[in-house]
Amino acid sequence: MNVLLVSLQKNFSIISLKLLHEILRREGFNSNILYVQGFPEDSKSLDSLKGYIKDFSPSWVGISLTSSEYKYAKNFTLFLKKNFDFPVIWGGVEPTVTPEHGLPYADYVCIGEGEKAVLDISNAIKNGGKLETINNLAYKDGNDIHINPLNPLLESMDELPHIPRVSKNSFFLHKGKVVELTHELVRKNSVLHASIYRVINSRGCPMRCTFCVNSFYYDLYPKYHFRTASPEHIIEGIVRGIQEPLPVAVISFLDENFFARKKEDLDKFFKLYKERVNIPYIIYSSPNLITDENLEKAMDTGLRGIQIGLQSGSEKVCKEIYKRPISVKKFLDSVERVKKYGLIPNIDVICDNPYETLEDDLATIDVLCKIPKPYFFYLLSLTFFEGIPLRKRVEKEKPEILNDPHEKDILITKPSVVNKLKHLAGIFPSRIVLSLSKWYKKNPESKTLKLLVGICFWFALIFVQPFIFLWILFLFSKKSIKQMLKYLYYFVDFRIFKTFNFWRTSKDTAQT
């Protein structure tokens, strides 16, 4: 039986969909992955898609999406319904949180973790059974939406197959034609030459921040908790991945909170990673788990950078709005610790929060100025995703300021003076930024100030930020010019994409 899984994301690192693909193949189903990367409007592409799908003749089609791909999924589903007659099932974060948004178009949506559901769906269709009885599926019954019970959470992640960087039976809509996806095509059509190898081997996060969808999963699953694969399983998957004919400059662990693992698991991982992989890597961690013991062991195995969430320099905002019980002192201590070990911090900052006052914004600028340079940073525009606690609060208190997550790009912040100052805080001399910040506090409507901040902002983007990038790359290379030049070949376009907000990919997730 043939199954077609479709990715509309603008990258090839769709870990969740590739996992389902490997599960189906392991159980004997003929699964194909089709990378469309948006929805094409030209007749050549549509004709090629139609011909490919007709020839493959799937028994059902699954479409993976986040809120960013909602419009693409809607249009692609309408295209399928117009030309074919098979069930179309949506899965991923978007339909999990808001099944009512998908069911006007899809026949069914899969809610929550879908590893068992995809097999149940395939077996039901193969044996002539009804999909309406399958756990995790939601469907329309007349004007009503019926949501079936959820399967229990997957407890042993070692049961999952290893995920290749490029799966067999993968296809790509490329230049108006569906072609087989090769490693060379991935390299040529990926940011940074596909040199960042992304992996994820855990689910969940101990924290329940109000802006994050992880909070929704705690409500969806009463016993939702942090789970991880064993060190042996993780390392075996990575070893297989680095043997594929794609460059690997750095391995990026997308686990929400890498250090949330048990001490014995971390120790075993570090030992095996050094023995069998020994490639530079970067991780995510909350500040409260960044300890000297963890950093000392990790640094010895190739850790080069840690993404850390500040979110706001205002403790009031962090505690009362975001429900993040992490003090500014704790955050700065963790960053200082990271810098002490020669690692590169990558700081997340949330902008455009209507609950933040001018004082809150200036507090964030002040904290950013206290971080010793150089460091990476991400300014993220607050998006009220469906299902998150913060959206529910805004719906009650400030419904007029709600934004549509289907229309919003989280990587594009408002061009406000305060956002420009936050950007400058990460790359410009702190003394200058703090002086501009004080001026802004006294006279936020000053046209002279706005002009000066604008000039500094563009000067920093064009002249200072590239230098900062090279400085970071030098430190990332352990101060080796030879190694730095090697990385530079892969990363030469990184600052261009980041500076001008051309990186339109959605964060991968193991949730389906």
Give a structural overview.
The chain is of the alpha/beta class and 512 residues long. The chain folds into 2 domains: 2-159, 3-Layer(aba) Sandwich (Rossmann fold); 190-499, pyruvate-formate lyase- activating enzyme (Alpha-Beta Horseshoe), CATH 3.80.30. It is 43% helix and 16% strand. The chain has 20 helices and 17 strands. It has helices at residues 15-26, 43-56, 70-83, 93-97, 99-102, 115-126, 183-188, 214-220, 231-242, 263-276, 292-299, 315-321, 328-340, 358-370, 389-397, 417-425, 430-442, 447-476, 481-491, 494-499; strands at residues 2-7, 30-35, 60-64, 88-91, 108-110, 137-141, 144-147, 170-174, 177-180, 196-199, 202-203, 227-228, 250-253, 281-284, 303-311, 344-351, 376-381. The strands form 3 sheets. Strands 7-6-5-4-3-1-2-8-9 form a 9-stranded mixed sheet, with helices on both faces. Helix 3 links the parallel strand 3 and strand 4. Helix 14 (358-370) packs antiparallel against helix 17 (430-442), helix 16 (417-425) runs antiparallel to helix 17 and helix 16 (417-425) packs parallel to helix 18 (447-476). The longest helix is centred in the C-terminal third of the chain and has 30 residues, at 447-476. It is globular. The relative contact order is 0.10.
